[in-house]
Specification:
Layout: E1 8-10, H1 12-25, H2 30-45, H3 56-64, E2 75-80, E3 83-87, H4 93-111, E4 113-121, H5 128-131, E5 139-145, E6 150-152, E7 162-163, E8 167-171, E9 179-183, H6 190-199, E10 208-209, E11 226-227, H7 233-246, E12 271-279, H8 286-301, H9 317-329, E13 331-333, H10 335-347
Parallel strand pairs: 3-4
Antiparallel strand pairs: 1-13, 2-3, 4-12, 5-8, 5-12, 6-7, 8-9, 10-11
Helix pairs in contact: 1-2
């Protein structure tokens, strides 16, 4: 599909129901299917298209391949006043991480700060989904994970031993949108590479290079090279440290132990995550803190701009705007994705997505 080709917009409720129905057909209990579908469509609403319904065919392949436990018994072990370890029993990552977020909020309410590690989970989508969950409780959220494939080499190396290990931090505001930083430690996430491949769009130079350091711009050849880290050696170091915290500390996969869930539909990934929640009231009254965040946001936004810069956007502003716009006007899906979802629907005996009423 050529760049700029028309997109079909579907209501979030339509996509949520479609994904939930597919998950039920491949064995998830109805409540779990609905929760996983909800998290996926929340990613789409926020503009993180590489982590939304785009992932449904891949998730189903891994479920069918026996790599994911569709009826897990998620276990929580409290290891201290503000710490816990969640064993996901190889369940869907969205299901496991939602439970971990609930535990982190409970512990932070008791102790002020919580650290919840997760092991034996799976790909859970965009980190902002979980970093923002504490916001409703007047808390700050921090999330990281070991990515489900190694697409980056340690700085100066050629071997793929590091993932795009993400970092998401969410801070509540008052009248302004919350500040939400959600980033990969590579220049771009691999989900974005896959979106480009599906749409037939070339990759900009500087995203992926081959073993000689030459740029790869054909997304179909991305697997021949590796993603570049943000900030050179700094991004590589950040991916390493986040991997140690989310992987090794939790008894989860890291480094050579990481299973590439893009290429393997049969092996459990033992994905590790971390969620930290901080109760603002332990430091400042939440209302006062939010007023100060608002003040600083407005001052930063009003800063003198460089020539050619039309506006200054702070982390989370565009995410907030996309949620509002897509909630009102639907989630855009490219024709190749709709066709793939139609094939998936037919394989499980459900009505085609393309037959649904667009937004």
């Amino acid at each position: 599909m050529a760049s700029g080709a028309p997109l079909t917009h579907y209501p979030a409720a339509t996509l949520r129901a479609f994904a939930a129905a597919v998950f039920e057909r491949v064995g998830l209990p109805p409540a779990d299917a609905a929760l996983v579908a909800t998290r996926m469509i929340e990613a789409d609403l926020s503009g993180q298209d590489g982590h939304g319904i785009f992932r449904l065919p891949q998730y189903v392949r891994r479920i069918r391949g026996g790599a994911v436990n569709v009826r897990p018994s998620v276990r929580v072990t409290r290891t201290g006043p503000g710490t816990a370890l969640v064993d996901g029993d190889n369940g869907m990552g969205q299901l496991v991480m939602t439970r971990a977020a609930e535990v982190a909020i409970e512990l932070a309410r008791e102790s002020g700060v919580s650290w919840v590690g997760v092991r034996r989970s799976n790909h859970a989508g965009t980190g902002a989904l979980y970093a923002t969950m504490p916001l409703a409780h007047d808390m700050i959220g921090l999330y990281t994970a070991v990515a489900n494939a190694n697409h980056m080499a340690p700085w100066g190396a050629q071997e793929l031993l590091l993932g795009t290990n993400p970092l998401a931090i969410a801070v509540p505001a008052g009248e302004e949108p919350p500040i939400v930083l959600d980033m990969a430690t590579t220049v771009v996430s691999y989900g974005t590479i896959k979106k480009h491949a599906q749409r037939g769009e070339p990759l900009p130079p500087g995203w992926v290079v081959d073993a000689r350091g030459e740029p790869i711009t054909d997304p179909a050849r991305a697997h021949e090279g590796f993603l570049l880290p943000i900030g050179g050696y700094k991004g590589s170091g950040l991916a390493l440290l986040l991997g140690l915290l989310a992987g090794v500390l939790n008894g989860a996969a890291f480094g050579r132990d990481v299973v590439d869930f893009n290429a393997d539909d049969h092996t459990p990934t033992n994905t590790g995550h971390v969620l930290i929640a901080v109760e603002i009231a332990r430091f400042l009254p939440p209302a006062a803190f939010k007023r100060e965040v608002d003040r600083h946001v407005r001052e930063l936004r009003a800063a003198r701009r460089l020539p050619g810069v039309e506006a200054i956007y702070l982390p989370g502003e565009r995410r907030h705007a996309r949620i509002q716009e897509r909630t009102a006007h639907g989630i855009p899906l490219p024709a190749p994705l709709v066709a793939e979802l139609d094939r998936l629907a037919a394989s499980v005996g459900l009505p085609l997505l393309s037959a649904a009423t667009p937004a």
